[in-house]
Amino acid sequence: MNRDIEKVLFTKQQIEERLAELGAQLAEEYHGKKPLCICILKGAVPFLSALIQQIEIPLEIDFMSVTSYGSSAKSSGVVRIMKDLDISIEGRHVLIVEDIIDTGLTLRHLVDLLEQRNPASVKTVALLDKSICRTADIEANYVGFEVPNEFIVGFGLDYDEQYRNLPYIGVLKKEVYHIG
């Protein structure tokens, strides 16, 4: 897998340091509120797992599976809910945990959907922000790293279900994927 990576953007150590900072911010933000962290499957699982270890307050987790990519390298723009929440969010402080925001269409759809369920609040944390690609009117409340407009893999992010298990975040070589 490593030979398919053009360059490493963030090392395992850089990721760990940034997650410690985010965890401290989130612990302060949600002190006394017992937030519900909603992990967006599958890409955000490593991020959620590492992040919640840094949030030193009581919290709960749940999962949603949402897709707008399939096996393509480009978003289709159509958001589909593949798995919904198991826990009611009414009156809860919700924190959506996302691996990457690019167009923002998926996150905008999720926030709008969850706000209809009467939570106390809905905020978002994204490991990566590819803001140059944003088409929807949304920004994450908390962001790990800003990334360039390249195909990013590792630490949960995939191309066709591969590379999620890389301990770093890197740029996939163009010859590995085909956009067209």
TrEMBL record:
Keyword match Transferase: yes
Cited Pfam families: Pribosyltran
Known cofactor(s): Mg(2+)
Pathway the protein acts in: Purine metabolism; GMP biosynthesis via salvage pathway; GMP from guanine: step 1/1; Purine metabolism; IMP biosynthesis via salvage pathway; IMP from hypoxanthine: step 1/1
Matches recorded under InterPro entries: HGPRT, Hxn_phspho_trans, PRTase-like, PRTase_dom
Reaction(s) this enzyme catalyzes, per UniProt: GMP + diphosphate = guanine + 5-phospho-alpha-D-ribose 1-diphosphate; IMP + diphosphate = hypoxanthine + 5-phospho-alpha-D-ribose 1-diphosphate
GO MF annotation list: guanine phosphoribosyltransferase activity; hypoxanthine phosphoribosyltransferase activity; magnesium ion binding; nucleotide binding
E.C. numbers: 2.4.2.8
Every Phosphoribosyltransferase domain range: 12-159
Keywords in alphabetical order: Cytoplasm, Glycosyltransferase, Magnesium, Metal-binding, Nucleotide-binding, Purine salvage, Transferase
PANTHER family: HYPOXANTHINE PHOSPHORIBOSYLTRANSFERASE, HYPOXANTHINE-GUANINE PHOSPHORIBOSYLTRANSFERASE
Function text: Purine salvage pathway enzyme that catalyzes the transfer of the ribosyl-5-phosphate group from 5-phospho-alpha-D-ribose 1-diphosphate (PRPP) to the N9 position of the 6-oxopurines hypoxanthine and guanine to form the corresponding ribonucleotides IMP (inosine 5'-monophosphate) and GMP (guanosine 5'-monophosphate), with the release of PPi.
Protein name from the UniProt record: Hypoxanthine phosphoribosyltransferase
Species for this entry: Seinonella peptonophila
